Amino acid sequence: MRIACLGGGPAGLYFAISMKLRDAAHRVDLFERNRADDTFGWGVVFSDQTVENLMANDPVSGAVIAGEFAHWDDIDVHIHGETIRSSGHGFIGIGRKRLLAILQERAGALGVALHFEHEASSDLDDWAGYDLVIAADGANSRIRDRYAPHFDVDIQLRRNKFFWFGTHKVFEAFTFAFEQTEAGWVWAHAYRFDDDLSTFIVEMDPDTWAGLGLDAMDQPDAIALCERIFAKYLDGHALMSNARHLPGPQAWLQFRRIVCGRWSHDKLILLGDAAHTAHFSIGSGTKLALEDAIKLAEVLNRPGLGRDEALAEYQAERNLEVLKLQNSARNSTEWFETLDRYLHFEPIQFAYSLLTRSQRVSHENLRLRDKGWLEGVERWFQSNAQGRAVNEPAPPMFAPFRLRGLELANRVVVSPMAMYSAEEGAPNDFHLVHYGARAQGGAGLVYTEMTCVSAEGRITPGCAGLYAPEHVEAWRRIVDFVHANSHAKFCLQLGHSGPKGSTKVGWEGYDVPLDGGNWPVMAASDVPWSPDNQLPRPMTRDDMDEVIAQFVASVRLGLDAGFDMIELHAAHGYLLSSFITPLTNKRSDDYGGSLDNRLRFPLEVFSAMRAAWPDDKPMSVRISANDWMGDLGVTPDEAVEIGRAFWAAGADLIDVSAGQTWADCQPIYGRMFQTPFADQVRNEGRVTTMAVGNIYEADHVNSILAAGRADLVALARPHLIDPMWTLRAAAQQDYRRVAVPPPYVGGMAQLARNLAREAEMKA
Length: 763
Ligand SMILES: Cc1cc2nc3c(=O)[nH]c(=O)nc-3n(C[C@H](O)[C@H](O)[C@H](O)COP(=O)(O)OP(=O)(O)OC[C@H]3O[C@@H](n4cnc5c(N)ncnc54)[C@H](O)[C@@H]3O)c2cc1C
Ligand SMILES: Cc1cc2nc3c(=O)[nH]c(=O)nc-3n(C[C@H](O)[C@H](O)[C@H](O)COP(=O)(O)O)c2cc1C
Fold this sequence. Notes:
Layout: E1 2-6, H1 10-22, E2 27-31, E3 43-46, H2 48-57, H3 59-68, E4 70-72, E5 75-79, E6 82-86, E7 91-95, H4 96-109, E8 113-115, E9 132-135, H5 142-146, H6 148-151, E10 153-157, E11 161-167, E12 174-181, E13 184-194, E14 197-204, H7 206-211, H8 219-229, H9 231-234, E15 239-240, E16 256-260, E17 264-265, E18 268-270, H10 285-300, H11 307-337, H12 347-355, H13 363-369, H14 371-386, E19 401-403, E20 406-408, E21 412-414, H15 429-440, E22 445-452, H16 469-485, E23 489-495, E24 522-523, E25 537-538, H17 541-561, E26 565-570, H18 575-580, H19 595-612, E27 619-624, H20 636-648, E28 653-657, H21 675-685, E29 689-692, H22 698-706, E30 712-715, H23 717-721, H24 725-732, H25 745-762
Parallel strand pairs: 1-2, 1-9, 2-8, 5-12, 9-18, 21-22, 21-30, 22-23, 23-26, 24-25, 26-27, 27-28, 28-29, 29-30
Antiparallel strand pairs: 3-7, 4-7, 5-6, 10-16, 11-14, 11-15, 12-13, 13-14, 17-18, 19-20
Bound molecules: flavin-adenine dinucleotide and flavin mononucleotide.
């Protein structure tokens, strides 16, 4: 094959090497616009796994590279005058210049024709003599941009500014240094990659950048300013730039996040940064480029595969890995872009949040890396939660939590789940067993399903209610059982179905109208849930007064029944949610339009409930923090305002759910997919939040809590199938101080022993 490689970065060079290794008869011409020893950037970092991949592909260059790596284990986080050091992180670094020199030498030795100072054409017609053209020309690939529609290119320019410096200061640990200036926070990512050289990337948000005057500053002045800001870390060493040819402001870059739907077009193939980028803060760009190169060479030489099949295979085999890394990189990018959220954390929690920012590193990963440090975090968390010095480390999920006069034994919550098993609104034996079992399963707080404030306010004929004397009796029986047989507290979720009412029970079809016996429904406006659902009646002032009175009456009945806490359900497209989202609120009176107006009725309801509920008992509000409809609906930014408004009205906890407010919305599902909203509402709004949504492992719960992304964590479906989820999590973590119902103690002890034995055998 005759192959033209455009670009002599890690991707192009390593691909050329990998092709020649597999078949020396390939003719590979590599064109690089720069001289052999020109390069931007300083050091790059790898993981041990990447080195193993390099050794397996080419032991010759792999051994040279491995022999020259600088290796370190520690991460130092400098914040608010403190240094938090954790260990066991295992990084290796090498100079980019040195890496390229090693690869150039190896490529030359294998017979790759290297053409330096050669600007490669971006017109495919100029490459007629080649069977394959490899676009390895980096993130700004001109040839990719020229044929962009074929690659389905999506480019996002991220907001922060950064400058990639080098310095002779040798950092012992991977260093994150955060410094406050008069214009805002500035931070550095620094690591050693050679005996006397370190990379030193300075990053800040664009307002700070402009505020410091860097938008109009020459490079020498900008460098001098950065040296002053970070003087205490540099020990008198200078910052060095190898972008000296650029005018000052242009040497500051903004990360370009690149995703391509297709990686090849005809004989043109994208490789490395040209195909996809990963933010420098997770240090994986070079790894991706090298691993792409290995895979592409492998499929092109795989016996029996034609060119097009090989290219399809290349993308199919690399895509998942790339998407995973890009996902982590996005989380990490966003963490640095929203740094202000976390600056009020104590240094130890700030460091934990930083270390777990990409969500690739979890609580248990940190334990494996540095048990002592993690136990320090656990002790800090428990001490904070208990208001006294705690010497015994314990999982964050088992820290108590206080809401007004209510003390929860731990932070695990059984999320509200409609059971559609009530008769005329009355809960029955099913509910006694269902809630009783979940309360005995160890969670600190158990929610009821959405319990409706009137017969018309039910979603389905099977929904539970609290609007008649017989309902109070039936609920009291369950509440009494929970209180007598568990340590769980019991929260009553009150709601009104609004436009989603008069529909079938869940297992007969969600949100599908009844076959017969429908009742009229109402909402903020006459917007039906779907073309099949009833057209709701827009609420009048009289309707509003009646609904407020119903909520207040249910609150009083809830008090009679003995509940510990009340939640107002203002999410998921039901009555109050139909006011909050602009997708369904089309009113032109004081209850529609601006967010203040859209919140007016839900806040009237909440305030009336709060007034009827005792002061020492807490209340929460469930919100949909994202309509998943972009700016047309509620956005997470708006959710911060929504959370604050309920908080100001006396809510003690914002239960942050999302979606189900518009039938055609496009949620992005994944592990813990709604937790970023709980994080944003909590840390921007400075309120207490509960996270929910595809959280299913103890490790998820501990990571969310210790990183300060939420105060409580609710699990719904995991509790459907395993009422004892919390006790099982305690056994898995060998946590003994959880309260087990006395008749079940033997089972718990055996489970803990078996799990410990299994873990030992695995180890
Ligand atoms: C600040 C910063 C820090 C980073 N830190 C790390 C890190 O720690 N670890 C890590 O793994 N990655 C890191 N990266 C990412 C890493 O640099 C890239 O992901 C990696 O270099 C991608 O390799 P590549 O060969 O695809 O592209 P590049 O390295 O960009 O190489 C492309 C090459 O093509 C050449 N070229 C472009 N156009 C033409 C043309 N028309 N004709 C001829 N030649 C052309 C360029 O001169 C360049 O040499 C960092 C990136 C930045 C910006
Ligand atoms: C069967 C079922 C019924 C639900 N009913 C309610 C409800 O009554 N009120 C509510 O706020 N959320 C309800 N939800 C949503 C859950 O509380 C939770 O937010 C959602 O299932 C995501 O959490 P998970 O991934 O842990 O299941 C229900 C979920 C399920 C699976």
